[in-house]
Amino acid sequence: MNLYYYASPSTFYPLAGKLIPWFAALALILTVVGLYISFFLAPTDFQQGEGYRIIFIHVPAAWMSMFIYVVMAFWSAIGLAWNTRLSFVMARALAPTGAMFTFVALWTGAFWGKPMWGAWWVWDARLTSELILLFLYVGVMALQAAIDDPRRADRAGALLNLVGVVNVPVIYFSVKWWNTLHQGSSVSLTGAPSMARIMLWGMLIMALAAWMYTIAVALVRARSLVLERERQTDWARTLLEGKP
Amino acid sequence: MNWESWEAFWAMGGYGLYVWGSFGVTALCIVGEVWLLRRHCLQTWQRLKRMKSWETQ
Amino acid sequence: MLKFLFTVIRRDVLLAARRRGDWLTAQFFFVMVVSMFPLGIGPEPSMLRTIGPGVVWVAALLASLLSLGRLFADDYRDGTLEQMLLSPYPNTLLALGKAIAHWIINGIPLLIIAPVLGIQFNLPAEALWILVLSLAIGTPILSLLGSIGAALTLGLRGGGVLVTLLILPLYVPALIFGAGAVEGVFSGTGPEAHLSLLGAFLILSLLLAPWVSAMALKVSVE
User: Fold this and answer.
1) Under DSSP, is residue C121 helix (H, G, I), strand (E, B) or coil?
2) Which residue of A has its CA nearest to B1?
3) How far is it, in rounded angstroms, from Cα A90 to Cα A110?
4) Chain B neighbours among A 115-144 (CB < 8 Å)?
């Protein structure tokens, strides 16, 4: 088992191609199971009625938005330390999906906040940090899009990503501190006092589905990036003879 | 079973707008991302193929 | 080592002193942005007092971003930056020196102007003093973090707007602690907690930012 073997673009490309359908299928199955639990097995919440069912996407999306940023930082660090091109590609392939989940977390947060708090948006510590996380994603993607040279784009994005990941806890802490001082909202998102086990399962399965989806989409994006960068090599040229 | 009828299911105990608004937009985001990605991949493939055919000429 | 640092700082400050029009723009921008707020919101003294610290701080962030574009760009264009990066001294010192020079040129004038603007917003004397103190601790953070953004966007088209996108989210803690310190005076909780957190953030950025922006410079110049 040689990691460098799998890190070479010519092995990665067909391997990823074989893995993608599996991850996509897993994502689909887990989503169906997760949705079944969220709508048919999970009981009605005695405080929030049926409205609480939004957590089955809100919480997994919020988890994903943070995890993906950290995973991106992990690949960025590896890329900067060992100069492996594929790590940068992975970091880059994850960014749009991370931004998408951040947006979903914000959107569903607003749709949950309206019936529960009576307002579409409150400057709650978590919602605010999530908004700033979205800005961080946008920053990394905008920087990479503005640089034409892929080598420089990779490295610059990776550095910004690492600065962001160091800053995220500081931002979260500062926003939380600011929130307690101003006492904006006394209701917190963890309002459900005793979460039924089935609800936890629902969220976990939805989160797993989101993971599988993320892996599948990131692999597709990474393959496209790899092919574009390796277009001068022999394996890519022979590949381009065939069908996509 | 939680729901007595399909109407009750879509109404979500009065929270229909919020629940379906959230799930609907999430589904739209995912479908949109997959669609955009698919289009991007196909375009990249065709562009690279065209570039290669120019080089060999 | 220290001599190199001082040379870098001295050079930038001298260059800025020769081209006064350039850096005065950012200071006037600061004054104007702050003065627009009462016009947009209304002149009630109590309202102005509540928003004053936040407005001055946000304007300080924007003014510091405005001047970041020139932090490395001039030296990059005439090739000096490349020579400096090749010098035997650590690049971290170069980045640190540049950030300190940026603070001397753009940060210190803000400290002098800020009390005058605070008076416009009806801030009491004690709050004015804390405002200046919070800016004194906070503006170096803006220069240090900003130097990372300036280094990353070196030579890119549309670099100025891009820096804003990259760096503004990173400024959030400085804004919260800085403006919060002045509000602490009004609310009676006192500014000490905020100021010490701001100081901690300054130390963190002082330790990490020059190092990262040196790496970013290398990536951008290569």
Assistant:
1) coil
2) A40
3) 31
4) 115
B44: amino acid identity, one letter: T
Which residues make Cβ contacts (< 8 Å) with residue A184, sequence separation at least 6? Answer: A122, A123, A124
What is the number of other CB atoms lying within 10 angstroms of the CB of residue C183?
A: 20
Q: What is the dihedral of CA A103, A104, A110, A112, to 10 degrees?
A: -160
Which residues lie below 8 Å from residue C153, measured CB to CB, with a gap of 6+?
Answer: A143, A146, C159, C162, C163, C166, C220
Whole-structure pTM value? 0.89
CA A121 to each of CA A108, A184, C54, C195: distance values in angstroms, whole numbers, following the listed order: 11, 11, 21, 29
- Identity of the amino acid at A109: G
Condensed to tens digits (0 to 9), the pLDDT of residues A163-205 reads: 999 988 888 888 887 877 665 444 444 544 456 778 888 889 9
Q: How far is the C-alpha of A53 from the C-alpha of A39, rounded, in Å?
A: 7
CA distances from C128 to A182, C51, C134, C172, C187 (A): 21, 14, 10, 22, 15
> What are phi and psi for residue A2, nearest 5 degrees?
-120, 120
Q: How many Cα neighbours within 13 Å face the side chain of A145?
A: 12
pLDDT tens-digit series, residues A109-144: 888 888 877 888 888 778 888 999 999 999 999 999
Contacts of B21 in chain A (CB under 8 A): 111
The tokens for A242 are 């065939």
A68 close to A97: Cβ distance less than 8 angstroms: yes
Closest by CA position to B47, among listed A144, A225, A228: A228
* DSSP-assigned letters across all residues of A158-178: HHHHHHHHHHHHHHHHHHHHH
For chains B and C, tell me whether 3 or more CB atom pairs sit within 8 A of each other: no
> Which residue among A58, A108, A228 places its CB closest to the CB of B48?
A228
Instruction: Give the dihedral sign, CA C184/C190/C196/C197.
Output: negative
**Cβ proximity of A134 and C168 under 8 Å:** no
Q: How far is B19 from chain A (nearest CA, A)?
A: 6
Q: How many residues does chain C have?
A: 222
Token pair, residue C190, equals 């006192």
The owner of tokens 């989101």 is A210
Q: Name the amino acid, one letter, at C42.
A: G
**Phi, psi angle pair for A49, to nearest 5°:** 65, -145
Neighbours of A167 (CB within 10 A): 23
**Residues paired with A49 in a beta bridge:** A45
> Any idea what the Cα angle at residue A228 is, between residues A222 and A231, rounded to 5°?
130
Average pLDDT for chain C: 89
Nearest to C182 by CA among C112, C117, C132: C132
Encoded tokens for A190: 């963890």
A13-45: pLDDT as tens digits: 888 888 999 999 999 999 999 998 888 887 777
How confident is the model at residue C88, as a pLDDT?
Answer: 86
Cα–Cα distance measured from residue C30 to residue C103, given in angstroms and rounded to the nearest whole number: 15
Cβ pair C72, C97 in contact under 8 A: no
